[in-house]
Amino acid sequence: MGHLFALIVSMFLLYRTVEAREITVTAGVDRNRVTTEDMVLLTITVSGSRKAPEPELPDLPDFEITSRGSSSRVQIINGAYSSQVDYNYLLQPKKTGLLTIGPATIRYKGKTYQTDPITLRVEETAEIETGQRELFITTKVDTSSPYVGQQVVYTFRFFRRVRVGNASLEKLDFDGLQVEDLGKERTYTTVRNGIRYQVTEFRKVLYPVHAGPLTLPAATLKCDVPYGRPRPYDIFTFGTERSRTKLLRSDPITLQVRPLPEEGKPDGFSGLVGSFSLIAQLGKEEIEEGESTTLTMTVMGTGDLTGAPRPEIAGIEHFKTYDDQPTLTTEPRRDRILSRKVFKTALVPTEPGTLTIPGVSIRFFNPEAGQYQKREAGPFTLKVRPAAEKEEINLTGVASAPPSRKQVKVVGRDILPIVTDLNTFKDRSFSLTSPGLWALVFAPPLCFLIIFLVKRERDRRFTDIGYARRKKAWIEFERGIKKARGLLRQGDSRKLHAHLARTVRAYLGAKMNLTGEAQTPIELKEALADRLSDPALPEEIYTLLQELEYRRFAPGEEVFHEGESDLARVKQICAKVEKKL
Question: What CATH code would you report for 130-257?
Answer without folding.
Answer: 2.60.40
